[in-house]
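Q: I'm teaching a short session on how sequence maps to structure, and I want students to see two examples side by side rather than one. Could you give me a first protein with its sequence written out and its structure tokens following it? Keep the formatting plain so it prints cleanly on a handout.
A: Of course. Example one:
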Amino acid sequence: MKVTIGGPLKLAFRPWVEGLENVPAEGAAILASNHLSFSDSFFLPAVLDRKVTFIAKAEYFTTPGVKGRLTAAFFKGVGQLPVDRSGARGAGEAAIKSGIDVLERGELFGLYPEGTRSPDGRLYRGKPGGLARVALATGAPVIPVAMIDTEKIQPPGKVMPKLMRPGIRIGKPLDFSRYQGMEHDRFVLRAVTDEVMYEIMKLSGQEYVDMYATAMKRQLTEAAKAEKEAEKAAKAALARAEKEQAEKEKAEKEKAEKEKQTEQRRTEP
């Protein structure tokens, strides 16, 4: 996949990279990145010599039919790991276990602390469960990564990508061994996550928003829904007003016609 996808991707978009020396040549490490675009999971592995394993929902790997098999082969080839989101605790525990397994094999594990793509290009609060727990359970260093301008290549709703140079900044590894054995302390998990997000913010230059991206997406969805309903109500009100005006004009016209006829009858010899 590095040849069939990574090579053409680098040739076409020519991504620039800073801090490549911060990724170890061997051994376990966590790549914690901001998340601007679906293509982030392709650009980052494309510029590294080592394999990077990300997690993906299991549905990508279990869809039946020819298209489903091709999709599964594609995601496996680019290093995506299926995670079953069903069960009492959903994707969180499955993702943590998957990440620990990858790191125990001495490989690179990539994840997005925000939990989802940024809805507006800003950097949102990191979720403490996955990143911090995996880091503390394995002792693997956390390498902050900033994707630059990847959201401009293929914005939501655009089919054809725009040919432009995205960037990747890779920071120095962060060591959290001082918190070893404290992966169930929620205050420690928050401290670790916030430290990583601060480093990502410095690398990316993004504006930081102290709320979860999922919450912002809900707000934007609700706002769009409210705007649509308000627009619908405004159109309905306008239609009613136009109808009332038309009826009023019709009534006035009929009244004027009757008055005209009455006047004519009075003036007749």
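Q: Perfect. Now a second example for contrast.
A: Example two:
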Amino acid sequence: MTSEDDGLLGPADVRELAAALGVRPTKQRGQNFVIDANTVRRIVRTAEVKPDDTVVEVGPGLGSLTLALLEAADRVTAIEIDDVLAAALPATVAARMPARADRFALVHADAMTVTELPGPPPTALVANLPYNVAVPVLLHMLATFPTIERTLVMVQSEVADRLAAGPGSKVYGVPSVKARWYADVKRAGAIGRTVFWPAPNVDSGLVSLVRREPPRTTASRKDVFAAVDAAFAQRRKTLRAALAGWAGSAAAAEAALVAAGVSPQARGESLTVEEFAAIAEHKP
């Protein structure tokens, strides 16, 4: 099947749409539009989108992935910050998938400010996230919409590595730990540069997140995340030193660490999210 005969956008379609709208992808918003129908189908397949899913998409752009999601899901709600793109997307959906147009909703807003969505609660998040806001947007959506069970995001390869990294890895850090508060996280494939317009000068990767219960703890998520931020703010320091400001003093940090069963000489990159939760429980 080609994109022309099933409503999906091919390279010529994307460029024509962009030209008609006077749209040039901007670096400021990290915009790179997907121009390959096989790639968006692969993303939908990898995301395991089911016919009863309500999918939320962040940054739909010209609608390449949106159309592929509409083919597979029950409903799709897209969040778009760009005025021109937000205004154009419903017409693109209506023209290319008229039978599914009533299953589509658009929210014209900055995803970081969205706290509610129209229609049924979302069950999946699938998005090609602009690299400059990928992690904050992902964490905001997971925190705000607990009904999201499965997430598949396309992000810069380096960000994908950081999100999927486990304790002990050189790139394990704040995004890795916070994502694990919400979900089991893994790399789910690589995406080449040629499927985008304009072609970015970095590779992209897919990250899969499957919702799980957060760590059992009496500490709030806010307190746990504050401990995580403090631990990685000075990566080279031992936790006793790195958490001194957070705990009130190095001695108080040491007491919290010992009570949590964590060595005061350890460093943040060796700890699981459960260990950070235990430390936060013992903050003075």
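Q: What should students look for in example two?
A: Point them to this: Residues 83-96 form the longest helix (14 residues). Also worth mentioning: Residues 262 and 275 are 7 Å apart (CA to CA).
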